[in-house]
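This protein record is not my work; I was only asked to verify it. Where you disagree with what is written, explain briefly why. This is what I was given:
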Amino acid sequence: MNYKRVFWGVILVALGVALVLKNLDIICFSWHTLWQLWPVLLILWGISVLPVRDLWKLLLSLLAIGVTVLILYHAPDRQRDYWDWNFEWNDDEDEGQTTRQDLAEPYDSAVRFAMLDIDAAAGSFILNSISDQLIDVSTKGKDGTYSMEIQHNGDTAEIGLDMHPFKKEGKKHIKAGHKVIVKLHPAPVWEFSLDAGAAEIDMDLKDFKVQKIDLEGGASSVDITLGNLLETAQVDIEAGASSVKIRIPAASGCQVISNTVLSSRHLKGFDKIRDHTHQTPGFHSSANKIYIELDAAVSSLEVERY
């Protein structure tokens, strides 16, 4: 018996079943919470190199996974809140009215740099429009409400956009049904930090001065379009079971460093420099450079030049 084939086969089957149940809305959970358990991979790796028979390795691995599930299930409410079985969600409370919000912060010409931090469990996030405000946010959904906090530090504005899920019987109720549309002023240099569990993220940023994007998420669909209004831009992504597509200008040089497990890369027009590192031809002589770093498991990465 080949331990590696059996083990990874079991993992893929379990992951596939979980995705099917989630897509059918039978269960609802946050992949970001599971992603916090990444050290389990180190345990499984350690088991795989033990000098014992494959049968013992398989049994130890299944035991480790079982213990992990028990720990997750019996964890404090701050973790278990993201789990909710969905067999009785057709009552009047769950079919309540849709919540709509409009949040905005006026633009101040003294703001040269802006940092946007979005903390959300799930949903659809669209950022593709210019505003005469510093930031203009519209939300729609039945999952919860948002709050926005602004702090000014000299010529820098720090913006925090947080979701507050509705609760049912002491548990957070998240059904990934909300939509968030964000519009920004194009004048400041922008940095973005997104923490999303199972989200659909569409960011068309070619009209903005983007200095950095830092994204953490699980089971997410990420579509980012970058421009070349700054000399350098940095994109850091940590993801699990995600689809990531990044569009970059053909005139910009790009370097991609990817550390992935059971993942695919589509880097048309890139040259392989060394393991895990790819660059566009003439990268070092390019006037504009984009640096992309990806750490992912069971995910796909595509970088397209336009």
